């Protein structure tokens, strides 16, 4: 088995905030930055997943987004039902203390701290939206783009299932056992199927997330950022980074049509639909997802080297 170095979490001063991050793999390997989704923490890119990616020849960087985990908590009020309804139905975005573009700048600033001029950018769900923003606004910093379980923000796309919306709109409990119970219920819905390997880890995963710090108001601020940022569909036509769009056919939160829309919006993008995958990265599906990321990223680097 390949031994992979894991550098412990550190705090970087970047874009005017504290960003908690850690890295896996050789510092001289190709940089690959993982961006987690709404309310997620960097540890929700499982250690074992990161180790497997690093073993493919990457320096894997994961971090807590602002308002999550051990990164900075920002000011701003909770999102009301009325504001959310106006955004989704009337396309009237709420006021937001920051946007997805600001979160993209966080990523770039962290790369600056780490001395990374360009990287393969991988984002899941809201992280995919942030990754798209990076490819739009900072094209020279992106070696390749991998957008997972995400969307362009196109308001004409199908909305999440009622069950998924009801679960995610339920406020995060601050009591430890209630948080763990909600975490388990939520991921059972988002995985959209029976995945015993993941279900067996749900409690320990929830404990890790809770013990690192939960921030219910921060989740609302991240939702505000998503709603206030609008559609990227037209701007994505300017993206030149080699792009891979990965999406589950059973996703109950972000309809697979969103993946088709993303791939159609980015010139030359490839689409990979994973049969039976919901809005999660189940252990059972890691091999095909890691293979796809590995192949796409290294092909992009090889093409760039030939052009240079």
Task: Name the shape in a single word.
Answer: globular
Could you say how many structural domains there are in total?
Answer: 1
From the helix content, strand content and strand pairing, which structural class follows?
alpha/beta
Mean pLDDT: 93
The CATH topology is what? Rossmann fold
Report on the structure:
The protein is of the alpha/beta class and 308 residues long. It has one domain: Rossmann fold, CATH 3.40.50.1820. Helices cover 41% and strands 17% of the residues. An 8-stranded mixed sheet has the order 1-2-4-3-5-6-7-8, sandwiched between helices. A hairpin with a 2-residue loop joins strand 1 and strand 2. Helix 3 packs across helix 4, helix 5 packs antiparallel against helix 6 and helix 6 packs across helix 8. Keywords: Hydrolase. It holds the Pfam family Abhydrolase_1. One of its GO terms (molecular function) is triacylglycerol lipase activity.
Element layout with pairings:
Elements: E1 6-14, E2 17-24, E3 30-35, H1 47-54, E4 58-63, H2 81-89, H3 100-113, E5 119-124, H4 126-137, E6 142-148, H5 162-168, H6 176-191, H7 196-199, H8 202-212, H9 216-229, E7 243-248, H10 256-265, E8 270-274, H11 286-307
Parallel strand pairs: 3-4, 3-5, 5-6, 6-7, 7-8
Antiparallel strand pairs: 1-2, 2-4
Helix pairs in contact: 3-4, 5-6, 6-8
InterPro entries: AB_hydrolase, AB_hydrolase_1, AB_hydrolase_fold
GO molecular function: triacylglycerol lipase activity
Protein name: Alpha/beta hydrolase
